[in-house]
Amino acid sequence: MNYSLSLRSIRGRVGEENFQILSVLSGLLTMVFFFSMGSPYFFTTNNLLTIALQTSIIAIIAIGQTFVLITTGIDLSIGSNMALAGIITSMALVSGLPMAVAIILGLIAGIISGAINGLLIVLADLPPFVVTLGSMSIVRGLALVITNGIPISGLPKAFRYIGNGKLLGIPFSVLLMIFLTLLFGFILSKTRLGTNIYACGSNLEAARLSGINTKKTLITVYIFSGFLAAVAGIVLASRIASGQPNAGMGYELYAVASSVIGGTSLAGGEGIMTGTLIGALVIGVLRNGLNLMGVSAFLQEILIGVVIILAVFADRIKRR
Q1: Which residues in 195-213 are b (16+ Cβ under 10 Å) and which e?
Q2: Phi, psi at residue 296, to the nearest 5°?
Q3: Backbone phi, then psi, for 189, in 5-degree steps?
Q4: Which of 244, 215, 251, 234 is nearest to 76 (CA)?
Q5: What's the pLDDT tens digit per position in 89-144?
Q6: Please, where are the H alpha helices in the chain?
Q7: Distance between CA atoms of 61 and 78, rounded to whole angstroms?
Q8: Pick from 144, 146, 173, 176: which is nearest to 247 by CA?
């Protein structure tokens, strides 16, 4: 009896996720058609590659945010972690350390920040919003203190390949985005850890009573988010050829927007990486298309906010 109910539940969730992906994909294709009619420069190979390049950073951080949102949490420190990882990597490169070592140091910074967030949330039983809001300020302040507010420049050319280079005609950062989406999508949908994450988001107490180590699962989720924010920060530093203490400001908004548009529920227990990737593409296409049509940056922020609210409203209707 329990097995039958569980099987029906899984099938129902898979069906809802497929419907959600088709819905978001339909919206994305509609936007592509609309902007193609509005600008002759939109549907060109160079512009489509530009959209993919711009979307890559948003998609990478959105992957981590998706994990967090599925557990009913939120990570507001993503943008600050991006800046800190980019600065640490840049400083290590300028000091003469090998590129691999510098990148590892930047990734470690993101992992430590994510682990601290998770430990405070789990062990001190603090709300994720409060913890990551405080972390956002602390990490940003640390980035400013380390650099004295001055960007780190003079990075080697080899490092710039990460954000600007191409492999087989495709930007390297886009290939990295695809790889990370597949990797973490596999973790979420095909591993025991992924099952535990969904369980924690659906009902934390029930997950704990069923034998799941909920504390370890939640800490791991925030480590993922910190790690992916660091990856995005390093890619961004490579793209702009400098470590900027103000890098990543506001990117947590894009991460949440991509996840929610892609079908991740703010109430927890639902989310899929394919949807998150499409959600990030929606944000990228929207910004690029509006730019080509001459819409001001201020109005773009309003429209993105409207899209987020509509996505949350649609999720609420679906749950009802």
Answers
A1: ebbbbbbbebeebeeeebe
A2: -65, 155
A3: -105, -20
A4: 251
A5: 999 999 999 999 999 999 999 999 999 999 999 999 899 999 999 999 999 999 99
A6: 2-38, 45-70, 78-94, 99-123, 128-147, 157-164, 172-190, 192-202, 204-209, 214-240, 251-261, 273-292, 297-319
A7: 7
A8: 144
